[in-house]
Write a sequence for this structure.
């Protein structure tokens, strides 16, 4: 009698191919896929990475969907052409199968036609637009398609990832400005106390995030989770503090109030850090700008040693945080406006900060947030108790300050209105105790706007006034771009969006959709792109007001969709190109270093993704598609040149090596990645070990050391004599004033509310009222919408294009809330709703349906819909009958903040659906 | 790492403070073990406790606990479920008949039976075809602790729990390092070290000694743990994953075995007693024996219809040492030939006595079969054996009296009605003990409600039956038979809620009064990574 499986093959006799998973921004994770008889059979962690990868080479639940993703019978089996000229949800596309040759010729023909007309249309916008899914992850799958785009020229990437900037938007922009932190993370392994306002890191932090947080909890990290709904992250926190939605800024301001007003800052703050590493000692003029030395124009500080105002960068001074005497100097305002002051009372930025937060007492915040004032006080005191001011820690033989406290913000908190206030407050909280960019404290993970982007520390460059350089979009009279380069106008409307390759995606990406419907005054016509490419994105589901965005998509004249299965966006496409998916195509990418979300590695290098098993559909590698399109569109030379320049992730020719592709020959997929393999291994090994593609296919990755000490930027700033641009935002304020002047000169008044947000220190606004006022704006009664609706991250579904995978659904359903809308039992009882009832959720602008999931871990004034659903075309998902917040939220200027982002929140009412059946939902 | 010289005792420590409920273990298990849609040998429950604003939420890794005293093993009639020396409770798919006795005996909802091949998209993908396991159809299946990997470790000189390739997939894939696997007999193993912290076992009162221990330390806020046992009285508003579900392994077909088996054996017992008293004609005696055997046979036939692998049904005789199901078959194997003999040579006093003894043994086996199903609190409760034996006897007497009324040659002796009434009274008493003591028997709330509901009909019916047995015996007999059948059907298909998961302690964390205590003095314990 035996219990052993007859078919069992020992692990070491199995073929396991190394690949990477980059289905979410927390990637890449390196894994291995078993292959038997030409079939990809199983996924597992890459155990060879134990000790090298920050989570020992493990992969999360999503990676295990890859097998089913590959063999999903609902995949688009070959290229398709639309035969029904009518587009829209109600019009069957009438797909007709065609050959790859025909499909590529149709697309290339259209490209040549457009190129003959000129790259930009009559409104000045690129005729070709492209949308790729969120967070830059599609780049890790699209092979050399970026080289094709580069060869093409102007492309409008401003429709965003296919939806609005649904991201940590304020954190991205302000985070990079302040501490090179496109994404912010505590130094989790060393952190002891985290105040977490709604960051669902246990669902969004990826493998490394979960790994580090779990380790930290085991070591005693205490987390206070402040959020309206008890998320999986809140579940793991020591304390859950249910806060009223969108009032986080009030809570954070009150924490600062507690520290600065009720406690003695001289005793509880890191005074040395404040005076040396922040702009707290900078003196301010009465107009709100720094008071500057009349000669050098450098900002002045009050030197306690000599009792006099001197430029901040004077050697041997002791800058005062408070108590300056009379001072003289000049203020530099917007548009060259100067003011000269003599013997005015010296006020430091720190004193201004104290005055700024004085009104925001815990009692004031209690009324706004629903959190007891004493709780707010106690949390602030716990924060201070853990800050360990004065302590140091040794890492790799170097001594650093040790400040194990941090404040984290969730997407719903720092996206849209309130984002500036919350990101500012949390970063100020770090600065007050010297916890910004030091071990234990608040760190950045990566940069996307400043350059060079590869190493954060390298991006620390001298800028104005003792701060790091930041490439604001120019707002001066001569430098401002009155004509947007692309439809979302990031370079015209958002100085903070900068102008890097990532900037188009970080502009107000929902405005192009909105402006298609409502043309704003004195603004270029919102034209439709002649050709729209979409890849790994489904804006008809993932946008705010998704149903309306689907209508706009239907109006685009020619859409080329790289298509995995039929979905709600490619339903409107003209051509479907089934690309080889995750386990079917070849690519090498950079791994390691520090990346989103918490991917702090002590190694860096390159990893591979390669085909596993035989293809079962007539799909094509994205690199081959790019090469074919380039050739057929007559751009082969430019395309190869772009690859040689580095469009495939690395320059193929530098002073150290030359692995460039021949300029005029059509390269194969293997040619391209073979040369990348050589260049990459050359780079990693400094030329000592140049490896070919087969080596990477076998080994999976090549790594070198990346010192942990690189994680902490405070040291880098200190070494360069720089300081953090906090708490005072003189540059932001000046840009705001200048931008206001420019827009008004151009007759643009519809951005005025947004312009009000450019304050040197942000004031509290009653943020919830913005959404309540919007109800009136659309002509409805706020009393009819008594609840808040929010969303929450699903680790299982997010970003994986895996709503069509029943295995993912099966395991996701183990996590509460995946079967419908989460309601507090009290709220449900009032509406006569019981668990599992069908409910109707109505917002001022939309409606959605689903089943009620009663949970106690949610405020009675709030409901939550996890993930993004309401599919009507995607196989499998269209039978989920799940509700979606995206069907309820509005696209509206009034809900757009100054950085151009909205937020996943709306007012709603919930009622029992009179028709308690799924059919009703499908009909709707 | 070297192999241990001692016999290992494999098990796991699951850290509740680490687990985030991400289901990576769930899905990696599905990969490693090629489980079919909906079958999860490993899964993680998402549990909420309390009500707003005093709420906590936690995640509980569940699956086969590889108990040191596994209730599934002794009940198995075939020996397909057995325990190895290293502690693994394993399945031999080729022996199992799919009777599901192990599934109802498991207090951890760890076992499933899939009767049909199922695929995620209806038709199998090439991968599903490749990874299909037809040997698992119609038989019990559950977590094996990735037994093949553990055995591979022996061959390769590796250590499960240390070398990831030979560690159970759930543990080797866990992204929070919440699931640690290893050898509890090795004092230096990581599981042994972790188990020295604050741990608990699920449903520890059942004395199964599960080999998954749950660690619930929260450094810095250990003072103040939540005892969650009380949750059983306060069911969550939605679906409480800790609450036991209604078992569906044994359906009406299984119930028919108890309904007809109890009735038939009780009837034979009474009939034999009457024969011993010389109160029936020889022809009638034979008829009574045929009737009793037929009733029992019909019950057994229903069971046969229910088992997953019918052609292997004879395997059920392999475990008479421990399994009441095997024993029942042996009793049948003795009883039926005796009846056959009696039909051939006539019902002698000796044969009547022997058949009576066999019938009593059969009835007793039936009572013990249900009682040994530790996974179903209502069945394993102490009143169950007297309830079923007394019911069988009452039903047997009742049926006899009804038959005696209708058929010639059978004497409806007054003492039979007396036996019927007495047995009915005992059954009713046992039922009252079951219902009134339900909480003490740790019967979960849903099952308690169900029992109370059943009492509304059962108690008056039985009381009426007793009275009628005295006044109009045949009528009383019919009432008792019907009440007994309905009660058994109800017990098996309606009140059969599984144990669920009772946890003696959990980390203190959550909102309001469930929140962990503040730390206002800073926290120094625990050396941070990278600290000098």
């Amino acid at each position: 009698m035996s219990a052993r499986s007859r078919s069992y093959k020992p692990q070491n006799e199995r073929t396991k191919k190394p690949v990477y998973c980059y289905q979410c921004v927390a990637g890449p994770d390196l894994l291995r896929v078993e292959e038997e008889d030409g079939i990809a059979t199983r996924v597992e962690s890459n155990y060879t990475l134990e000790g090298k990868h920050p989570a020992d080479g493990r992969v999360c639940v999503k990676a295990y969907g890859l097998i089913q993703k590959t063999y999903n019978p609902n995949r688009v089996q070959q290229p398709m052409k639309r035969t029904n000229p009518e587009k829209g949800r109600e019009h069957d596309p009438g797909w007709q199968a065609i050959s790859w040759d025909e499909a590529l010729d149709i697309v290339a023909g259209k490209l040549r036609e457009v190129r003959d007309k000129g790259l930009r249309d009559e409104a000045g916008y690129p005729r070709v637009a492209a949308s790729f899914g969120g967070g830059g992850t599609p780049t890790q799958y699209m092979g050399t398609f970026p080289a094709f785009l580069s060869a093409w020229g102007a492309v409008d990437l401003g429709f965003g990832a296919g939806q609005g900037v649904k991201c940590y938007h304020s954190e991205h922009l302000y985070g990079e400005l302040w501490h090179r932190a496109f994404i912010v993370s505590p130094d989790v392994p060393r952190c002891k106390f985290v105040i977490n306002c709604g960051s669902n890191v246990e669902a969004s932090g990826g493998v490394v995030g979960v790994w580090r947080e779990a380790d930290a909890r085991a070591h005693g990290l205490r987390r206070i989770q402040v959020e309206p709904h008890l998320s999986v992250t809140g579940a793991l926190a020591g304390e859950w503090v249910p806060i009223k939605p969108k009032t986080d800024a009030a809570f954070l301001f009150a924490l600062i109030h507690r520290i600065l007003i009720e406690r003695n800052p001289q005793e509880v703050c890191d005074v040395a850090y404040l005076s040396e590493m922040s702009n707290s000692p900078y003196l301010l003029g009465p107009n709100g700008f720094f008071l500057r030395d009349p000669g050098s124009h450098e900002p002045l500080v009050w030197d306690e040693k000599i009792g006099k105002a001197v430029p901040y960068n004077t050697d041997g001074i002791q800058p005062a945080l408070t108590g300056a005497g009379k001072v003289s100097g000049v203020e530099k305002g917007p548009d060259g406006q100067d003011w000269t002051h003599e013997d005015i009372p010296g006020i430091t930025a720190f004193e201004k900060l104290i005055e700024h937060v004085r009104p925001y007492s815990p009692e004031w915040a209690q009324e706004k947030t629903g959190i007891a004032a004493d709780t707010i006080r106690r949390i602030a005191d716990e924060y201070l108790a853990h800050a360990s001011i004065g302590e140091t820690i040794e890492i790799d033989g170097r001594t650093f300050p040790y400040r194990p406290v941090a404040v984290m913000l969730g997407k719903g908190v720092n996206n849209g209105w309130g984002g500036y206030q919350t990101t500012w407050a949390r970063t100020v909280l770090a600065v007050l105790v010297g916890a910004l960019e030091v071990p234990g404290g608040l760190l950045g993970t990566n940069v996307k706007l400043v350059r060079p982007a590869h190493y954060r520390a390298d991006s620390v460059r001298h800028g104005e006034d003792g701060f790091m350089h930041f490439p604001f979009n120019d707002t001066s009279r001569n430098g401002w771009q009155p004509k947007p380069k692309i439809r979302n106008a990031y370079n015209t409307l958002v100085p903070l969006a900068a102008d890097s390759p990532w900037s188009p995606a970080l502009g107000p990406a929902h405005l192009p959709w909105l402006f298609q419907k409502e043309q704003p005054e004195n603004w270029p016509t919102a034209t439709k792109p002649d050709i729209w490419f979409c890849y790994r994105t489904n804006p008809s589901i993932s946008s705010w007001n998704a149903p309306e965005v689907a209508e706009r998509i239907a109006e685009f004249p020619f859409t080329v969709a790289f298509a995995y299965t039929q979905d709600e966006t490619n339903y409107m496409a003209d051509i479907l190109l089934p690309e080889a998916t995750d386990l079917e195509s070849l690519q090498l990418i950079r791994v390691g270093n520090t990346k989103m979300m918490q991917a702090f590695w002590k190694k860096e290098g390159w990893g591979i993704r390669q085909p596993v098993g035989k293809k079962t559909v007539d799909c094509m590698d994205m690199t081959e598609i790019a090469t074919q399109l380039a050739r057929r569109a007559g751009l082969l030379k430019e395309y190869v040149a772009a690859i040689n320049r580095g469009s495939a992730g690395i320059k193929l020719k530098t002073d150290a090596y030359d692995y460039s592709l021949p300029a005029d020959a059509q390269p194969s997929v293997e040619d391209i990645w073979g040369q990348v393999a050589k260049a990459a291994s050359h780079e990693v090994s400094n030329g000592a070990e140049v490896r070919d593609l087969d080596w990477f296919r076998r080994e999976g990755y090549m790594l070198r050391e990346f010192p942990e000490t690189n994680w902490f930027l405070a040291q880098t700033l200190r070494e360069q004599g720089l300081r953090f641009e906090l708490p005072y935002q003189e540059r932001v304020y000046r840009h705001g004033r200048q931008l206001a002047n420019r827009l008004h000169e151009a007759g643009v008044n519809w951005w005025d509310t947004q312009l009000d947000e450019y304050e040197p220190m942000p004031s509290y606004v009653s943020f919830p009222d913005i959404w309540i006022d919007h109800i009136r704006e659309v002509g409805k009664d706020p009393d009819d919408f008594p609840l808040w609706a929010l969303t929450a991250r699903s680790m299982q579904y997010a970003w994986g294009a895996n709503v069509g995978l029943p295995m993912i659904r099966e395991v996701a359903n183990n996590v509460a809330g995946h079967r419908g809308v989460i309601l507090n039992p009290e709220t449900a009882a009032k509406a006569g709703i019981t668990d599992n009832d069908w409910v109707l959720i109505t917002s001022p602008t939309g409606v959605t349906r689903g089943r009620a999931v009663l949970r106690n871990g949610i405020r009675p004034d709030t409901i939550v819909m996890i993930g993004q659903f309401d599919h009507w075309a995607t196989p499998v998902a269209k039978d989920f009958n799940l509700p979606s917040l995206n069907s309820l939220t509005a696209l509206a200027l009034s809900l757009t903040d100054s950085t151009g982002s909205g937020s996943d929140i709306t007012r709603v009412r919930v009622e029992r659906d009179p028709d308690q059946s799924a059919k009703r939902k499908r009909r709707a | 790492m070297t192999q241990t010289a001692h016999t290992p005792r494999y098990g796991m420590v699951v850290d509740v403070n680490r687990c985030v409920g991400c289901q990576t273990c769930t899905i990696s298990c599905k990969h490693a073990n090629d489980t079919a849609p909906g079958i999860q040998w490993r899964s993680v429950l998402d549990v909420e406790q309390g009500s707003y604003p005093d709420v906590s939420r936690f995640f509980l890794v569940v699956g086969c606990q590889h108990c040191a005293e596994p209730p599934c093993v002794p009940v198995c009639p075939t020996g397909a479920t057995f325990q190895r020396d290293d502690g693994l409770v394993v399945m031999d798919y080729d022996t199992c008949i799919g009777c599901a006795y192990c599934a109802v005996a498991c207090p951890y909802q760890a076992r499933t039976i899939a009767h049909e091949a199922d695929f995620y998209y209806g038709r199998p993908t090439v991968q599903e075809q490749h990874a299909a396991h037809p040997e698992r159809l119609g038989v019990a299946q559950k977590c094996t602790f990735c037994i093949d990997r553990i055995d591979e470790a022996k061959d390769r000189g590796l250590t499960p729990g240390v070398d990831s390739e030979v560690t159970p997939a759930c543990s080797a894939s866990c992204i929070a390092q919440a699931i640690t696997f290893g050898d509890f007999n090795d004092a230096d193993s990581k599981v042994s070290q972790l188990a020295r912290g604050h741990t608990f076992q699920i449903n520890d009162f059942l004395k199964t000694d599960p080999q998954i221990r749950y660690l619930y330390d929260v450094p810095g806020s250990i003072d103040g743990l939540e005892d969650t046992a009380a949750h059983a009285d306060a069911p969550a508003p939605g679906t409480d994953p800790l609450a036991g579900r209604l078992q569906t392994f044994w359906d009406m077909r299984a119930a028919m075995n108890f309904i007809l088996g109890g009735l038939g054996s009780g009837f034979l017992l009474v009939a034999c007693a009457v024969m011993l008293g010389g109160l029936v004609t020889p022809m009638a005696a034979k008829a009574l024996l045929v009737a009793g055997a037929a009733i029992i046979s019909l019950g057994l036939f229903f069971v046969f219809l229910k088992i997953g692998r019918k052609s292997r049904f004879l395997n059920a005789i392999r475990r008479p040492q421990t399994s009441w199901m095997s024993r029942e078959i042996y009793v049948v194997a003795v009883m039926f030939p005796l009846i056959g003999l009696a039909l051939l040579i006539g019902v002698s006093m000796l044969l009547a006595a022997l058949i009576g003894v066999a019938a009593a043994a059969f009835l007793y086996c039936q009572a013990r079969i249900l009682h040994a199903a530790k996974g179903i609190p209502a069945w394993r409760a102490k009143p169950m054996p007297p309830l079923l034996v007394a019911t069988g006897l009452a039903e047997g007497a009742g049926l006899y009296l009804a038959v005696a009324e209708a058929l010639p040659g059978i004497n409806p002796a007054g003492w039979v009605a007396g036996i019927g009434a007495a047995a009915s009274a005992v059954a009713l008493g046992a039922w009252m003990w079951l219902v009134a003591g339900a909480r003490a028997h740790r019967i979960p709330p849903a099952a308690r409600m169900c029992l109370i509901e059943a009492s509304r009909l059962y108690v008056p019916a039985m009381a009426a039956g007793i009275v009628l047995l005295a006044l109009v015996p045949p009528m009383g007999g019919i009432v008792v038979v019907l009440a007994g059948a309905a009660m058994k059907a109800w017990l098996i298909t309606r009140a059969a809620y599984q144990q669920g998961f009772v946890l003696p302690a959990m980390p203190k964390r959550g909102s309001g009064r469930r929140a962990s205590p503040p730390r206002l003095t800073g926290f120094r314990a625990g050396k941070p990574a990278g600290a000098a």
Q: What stands out?
A: Chain A has 31 helices and 33 strands. The radius of gyration of chain A is 27 Å. The CA atoms of residues 259 and 265 of chain A lie 6 Å apart. Chain A has a mean pLDDT of 96.
